Amino acid sequence: MKELHFVSAAEAVSHIPSHSHIHLSSVASVPHCLIRALCDRADAGEVEDLHFHHFHTEGPAPYSEPRYEGIFFDQGFFVGPNVRANVNSGYADYLPVHLGESQKLYRSGVIRLGAALVNISEPDENGMVSLGTSVDCSVAAIESAAIVIGVVNKNVPFAYGNLLPVEKFTYLVRDDAPLVTAAFAEPDPTEVIIGRNCASLVEDGDCIQMGIGALPNALAAQLTGHKNLGLHTEMFADGLLRLIKAGVINGACKKIDTGKVVASFLLGSQEVYDFIDHNPDVLMKDIKYTNDPWVIAQNPHMKAINSATEVDLTGQISADSIGCRIFSGTGGQLDFVRGATMSEGGKSITAFASRTRKGKNKIVAELNPGGGVVTPRSDAHWIVTEYGAVDLYGRSLQERAKLLISIAHPDDRQMLDEQAFHRFGPHYHNFSI
Question: Is 234 marked active-site?
Answer without folding.
Answer: yes
